Each structure stands twice: as structure tokens, then as C-alpha cells.
TrEMBL record, chain A:
One of its GO terms (biological process) is transmembrane transport. This is Peptide/nickel transport system permease protein. The keyword Transcription regulation does not apply. Belongs to the binding-protein-dependent transport system permease family.
TrEMBL record, chain B:
Its main location: membrane. It comes from Bosea psychrotolerans. Residues 96-302 form the ABC transmembrane type-1 domain. This is Peptide/nickel transport system permease protein. Belongs to the binding-protein-dependent transport system permease family. PANTHER family: DIPEPTIDE TRANSPORT SYSTEM PERMEASE PROTEIN DPPB-RELATED. InterPro entries: BPD_transp_1_N, MetI-like, MetI-like_sf. Pfam families: BPD_transp_1, BPD_transp_1_N. Gene3D superfamilies: MetI-like. Keywords: Cell membrane, Membrane, Transmembrane, Transmembrane helix, Transport. One of its GO terms (molecular function) is dipeptide transmembrane transporter activity. The chain crosses the membrane at residues 100-123, 135-158, 178-199, 241-263, 283-309. One of its GO terms (cellular component) is plasma membrane.
Length: 272, 316
């Protein structure tokens, strides 16, 4: 942890994420206005002392909406990534640990799925499940699964022939013990690094789905949806679309910086 | 690179297509409401529905339906769009080239900007130039396409400062100027995220190479800095850069969906989103397969380019 804060990239990421965390946890409490409250007399205003980031087409306070939207945007990214890591990690672990025909079958399947771009894959799944942020989250998790399974598998393969694994096998430990207690703990670090970076992709994908009308639904304050709703008015009041856009970018940037710093610190060859 | 290797890679692409087609087919099978309902509308009588289901073969088991569809795809019979009542192959063929034009314009921009930026950052490592390029690279990879697209529209295509069209497509027959002005904003949007990512990779590869022994040797030999960088270092840093570019084509193809939708660019991406919104199954199935094929093929092409750039790479 101390190493992380001494690392310039890590420090920048940690600061950004601390800010985002405050918004996520305290956002609705510190927001100056009710995010859904209309102020019909002050529609599409620019920034002012009363409305720090101006107001949207219904006169809703943009700053309050952003503070409230942090929760749906960030939890979406974290939830989708964690589900993807759990499913993909399990598949990769099994494929790598068992090896042989099972492994090649699983890998061929994953290769096929990886040939469909994440966004298209997500859109296909959301079309089947129907829109809404829960379904969108599940779709992103499924789309992430093949990539994460591949990474988990390759780390398992690099660990599987190391001395401590061979020693455990020689001691006569059961395969389940070897996988759970010897192999798995040593694959956690690369997966955490990858997962941290993926959270930023998940946030961007979630916002994109919200923007396309397939993720969070009105009156949610999810940031992608905010941009979609304000698009008609963007020429009259650019901050309607600029503010949520910057918020999405900062959140994605925070996870990206942190993930990169973690990779530098955990990878012995890391230098960059 | 042997002929056997190429054949094996092509066979692998076929397997990928098989898996993608099975996945897409099963996804479309789960969608509520079958094709007959979609064509006749919800007020059709059960007898009419049954007759059409028989005609379309919807009463057959799924593997018969799948095989009929997949073999049709291979032989060029891609079916008819349910919503647009046009042959899917014609629809996709037209849209594909517009998307390809957009993708190539973006890739060219990315290559021309990202590689020099990465080299510059590596040469000026640790200076303010490196820092600025690094910051740009970080920020660039954190902005989703729809945000970039929206912001570019607001600031460059607004009604009062609009010197660029806000969307749409102009074929070359309407003049080079019109065609180019329509491609600028969507291509710029697609380029930003890729430029950022690739510049970062090139910088990292280039700094690796620049600190290697053979570069020191080249310098000690008294070669000019220009020759050291361009002839010795760049060539060795290029192969990994090409690998990254080819992986990024996946992002590019995903980004095209959003960018075409925002800028009303009538390409494959917009067609797919239209088809998904309207549950136009034949179009969804065929277009997804085409995208996956394009991606798999571009990976193969990049592997060939890598082998050509780096003689140590031998595919057997």
C-alpha cells in the first residue's frame, strides 16, 4: 500500500478513486438539491453559485445528479467486473489445472467468443435479456468472461510446474487441495491487476449501454443516460453533456491508473 | 511462413466462425417471438402463423434450422431482412464498405499519429514532452467513444460554429471535400482512444529497444542518431506495435457501433444497432458473423506483417 502511494501513477489513481469513493458513498447526502426536482424557471442554465454545474432541460441541478449518479455508475463497473472475474477465473483455473482435451476444448470456445467485440457481445446479450442496469451488468460480466478466463489460465499454466506445486503433489495432496491452496493464491495478483483495469472498461461499457438506452433507465442519474437525455439540448447548454462525460472519464481514469501502478509493482520485470 | 501454417490459420478462422455462428444462433433462438410472428405481426391468425412457420422451416429441430442458415451463409444466401424486406447480403455489402472506409481512415490516422508520438516520448524519456504525451495517453484511453463523439459534435459541429457536418455520409461521387468533411469527426472519435493506447505501447517498446546492447553498439559505431532511431530501433519496436494495433481492431469494431450511431454513418454498426432494436434476426446473425470474420482475418494479416517486420519470427 505504501509502495502504491509512492508510485506517481498509483498516487494519482488513488487520489482520483478516493474522490470517486466519497461521491459514491456520500453523494446523495452532500448533493445540494434533490436530483429529480424540477426547477422550471431555471432550465438549461450555465454554472452559477446556485447551480454549480448548471441545470438540464428540466431545470434539474446537474451537480446533484452527478453526485447521485456516481453510485450507479461505479457499482455497475465493480459488480460487472467481479462477476466476470468469478466466472472467468473459475473457468480459466479449471482449464489450466486439468489440461488436456478439456483445456483445448474450453480454449477453442473462448477464442471463438473473443472474436466478437465486447460491445457487440454485450448488446446481443442485452437484446435477449431486455434492457435495465441489472441485465446490462450481467451482459458485461458475460462479455468479460472469455478474456479473464484466458488470463487466469495462462497464470495457472505458469504456476503449475513450479516447485511448490510439484512438492505438494509429491506429498500426495489431493488435486482439489493443490488447486485451491497452492495454485490459486499464486494467480491472484495478475488477476487483481487485470480486474482493476477492467473496471474502467466496465464503467465505459455500462455508460455506453445507458447512452444507447439499453442500460439504466430514466429517471436514473447514471452518467451515460444523462448524456443521452441531454443530447437534444447539447448545443444550447454544452455542460449538460460535458459534465457527465468528464465524470465518466475521471472514474475510468482512476481505475486505469491504479491498475497500471499495481501491474508495475507486482510484475518483477515491471519498469515502464 | 509455410503454406501449411497459413492453411492451419485459415482452418482456425473457420472454427472461430463456427463457434461464433453457434453462439449467435442460440442467442437469436432465445429471443422471444419467432420469425413468423415478426413477419405477420401480432394480429395474425394461428392458421396463418402455422403455414408460415412450415414454409420457413421453423417447425424443424434447431440443428436443422442452424445448418440451413449456416450453409446458406457459406454459399452466399444470407436470407432476407424482416424489417427492411431486402436481401441481407445486399444490405450488409453496402454497409460494410462504408464501415471499412471509416475504419481504414481511423487506422491510418492512428498509425500516422500514434507511432511518432510513441517514439518521441521514448526519445525524450523523463522530460516534460514524455509527461504530456503520457498524460494524453492516459486520458485518451479513459473516454468512451460516445463521450468523445458528443463533445466533438458540441464544439466543432454546433449550429453557430458548425464548420463540419453533424453527421451523415457523403459518397465520393459528391466530391472529395464533402466525403472528407463527413468522415473527419467519426474518424477522429475512433482514433482518439486507439492513438492513446498505441502511443503508450510504442513508447514502452521503443524505450526497451533504445536501452538494448545493439543500439549502444550502433551508437558506438558512430552512426547518426537518425539512422540509429529509424533504421535500428524503430524496426525492432514495430513488430510488437503491430501486434497491439491488430488487437485494438477489436475495440475499433466495437467503437464503430457507437460512433456510427452517434454520427448517423450508414455502416455496419448502425445496421446492427437498428437490427438489434427491431429484432431483425437474419441481419443480426449475418452482421455479427461478418464482424467476427473481419476481426479474425485482421489478426491473421497482422501476424503476417509481424513475420515480415521481424525475420526472427518464424511460423512453422
Amino acid at each position: 500500500m505504501r509502495d502504491l502511494l509512492r508510485h506517481p501513477t498509483g498516487l494519482a489513481g488513488a487520489v482520483l478513486l478516493a474522490l470517486i469513493a466519497v461521491m459514491t458513498i456520500l453523494g446523495p447526502l452532500i448533493a445540494p438539491y434533490d436530483p429529480q426536482q424540477f426547477h422550471p424557471l431555471s432550465r438549461l442554465q450555465g454554472p452559477s453559485a446556485a447551480y454549480w454545474l448548471g441545470t438540464d432541460q428540466f431545470g434539474r441541478d446537474i451537480f446533484s445528479r452527478i453526485l447521485n449518479g456516481a453510485r450507479s455508475t461505479i457499482l455497475f463497473g465493480l459488480g460487472a467486473t467481479m462477476a466476470g472475474v468469478a466466472a472467468g477465473g473459475a473457468i480459466g483455473l479449471i482449464a489450466g489445472a486439468i489440461g488436456g482435451a478439456v483445456d483445448s476444448l474450453i480454449m477453442r470456445l473462448l477464442d471463438g467468443l473473443l472474436a466478437v467485440p465486447d460491445l457487440l457481445f454485450t448488446l446481443l446479450i442485452v437484446t435477449v435479456l431486455g434492457g435495465g442496469s441489472g441485465h446490462a451488468m450481467l451482459a458485461v460480466a458475460i462479455a468479460f468472461m472469455p478474456g479473464l478466463a484466458r488470463i487466469a489460465r495462462s497464470t495457472v499454466l505458469s504456476v503449475r510446474t513450479r516447485e511448490f506445486v510439484l512438492a505438494a503433489q509429491a506429498r500426495g495432496e489431493s488435486p482439489a487441495y493443490v488447486i485451491a491452496c497452492e495454485i490459486m493464491p499464486n494467480t491472484i495478483a495478475p488477476i487483481i491487476v487485470e480486474a482493476t483495469i477492467r473496471v474502467s472498461f466496465a464503467i465505459m461499457l455500462g455508460a455506453t449501454l445507458g447512452f444507447l438506452g439499453l442500460g439504466a433507465q430514466p429517471p436514473s442519474t447514471e452518467w451515460g443516460l444523462m448524456i443521452a437525455e441531454a443530447r437534444q439540448y447539447m448545443f444550447r447548454n454544452p455542460i449538460c453533456v460535458a459534465a457527465p462525460g468528464v465524470a465518466i472519464a475521471l472514474a475510468a481514469l482512476g481505475f486505469n491508473l491504479l491498475g497500471d501502478a499495481l501491474r508495475d509493482l507486482t510484475d518483477p520485470r515491471g519498469r515502464r | 511462413m509455410s503454406a501449411a501454417y497459413l492453411l492451419r490459420r485459415l482452418a482456425a478462422i473457420l472454427i472461430v466462425l463456427l463457434i461464433v455462428s453457434l453462439t449467435v444462433f442460440s442467442i437469436t433462438q432465445i429471443l422471444p417471438g419467432n420469425a413468423a410472428v415478426m413477419i405477420l405481426g401480432e394480429y395474425a391468425t394461428p392458421a396463418q402463423l402455422q403455414a408460415l412457420e412450415l414454409k420457413l422451416g421453423l417447425d424443424q429441430p434447431w440443428y436443422v434450422q442452424y445448418w440451413r442458415w449456416f450453409s446458406g451463409m457459406l454459399s452466399g444466401d444470407w436470407g432476407v431482412s424482416m424489417r427492411l424486406s431486402q436481401p441481407v447480403a445486399a444490405l450488409i455489402g453496402e454497409a460494410f464498405w462504408r464501415s471499412a472506409a471509416l475504419a481504414l481512415a481511423s487506422l491510418a490516422t492512428v498509425t500516422l499519429i500514434a507511432i511518432p508520438l510513441g517514439i518521441l516520448a521514448a526519445l525524450k524519456r523523463g522530460t516534460i514532452v514524455d509527461l504530456v504525451i503520457g498524460l494524453f495517453a492516459y486520458i485518451g484511453t479513459a473516454v468512451p467513444e460516445f463521450v468523445t463523439a458528443t463533445l466533438l459534435l458540441v464544439f466543432l459541429a454546433g449550429p453557430d460554429r458548425g464548420f463540419l457536418p453533424a453527421g451523415g455520409f457523403a459518397p465520393l461521387s459528391e466530391g472529395v471535400g464533402a466525403a472528407l468533411s463527413h468522415v473527419v469527426l467519426p474518424a477522429a472519435t475512433l482514433s482518439l482512444i486507439l492513438t492513446a493506447h498505441i502511443a503508450r505501447q510504442v513508447r514502452s517498446e521503443m524505450s526497451d529497444v533504445l536501452s538494448s546492447d545493439y543500439i549502444r553498439a550502433a551508437r558506438l559505431k558512430g552512426l547518426s542518431e537518425r539512422s540509429v532511431v529509424l533504421r535500428h530501433a524503430l524496426r525492432n519496436a514495430m513488430a510488437p506495435a503491430v501486434a497491439v494495433i491488430s488487437l485494438d481492431i477489436g475495440y475499433l469494431l466495437g467503437g464503430i457501433l457507437v460512433v456510427e450511431e452517434v454520427f448517423a454513418w450508414p455502416g455496419l454498426g448502425r445496421l446492427i444497432i437498428y437490427a438489434l432494436q427491431n429484432r431483425d434476426l437474419p441481419v443480426i446473425q449475418a452482421a455479427t458473423l461478418v464482424l467476427a470474420f473481419a476481426y479474425a482475418l485482421s489478426n491473421l494479416v497482422s501476424d503476417i506483417v509481424i513475420a515480415w517486420l521481424d525475420p526472427r519470427v518464424r511460423y512453422a
